[in-house]
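Troubleshooting: if your tokenizer reports a length mismatch, compare your output against this known-good record of 85 residues.
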Amino acid sequence: MDYITESNRIYCTDENGKVIAEITFPEANEGIFDIDHTFVDDSLRGQGIAAKLVDLAVEEIKKRGGKITASCSYAKHRLEKNGII
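Known-good structure output:
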């Protein structure tokens, strides 16, 4: 799967350009990025795509020297479970 990284978003599209997986992490406050949305198309559920998106977002935020918070319930649970927040 090819992940496309933009300033505050990582996503994948299908062959028609439709977004099939996405995570967004806007800068809520200076240097603090809020993972606020995770989406995985039903056709990809159960493959670990959402977890991969969270991991990629964390990696990107850390690369920028930012701190991480999450208002997305899935991301928050995963980050707490892994001791990231």
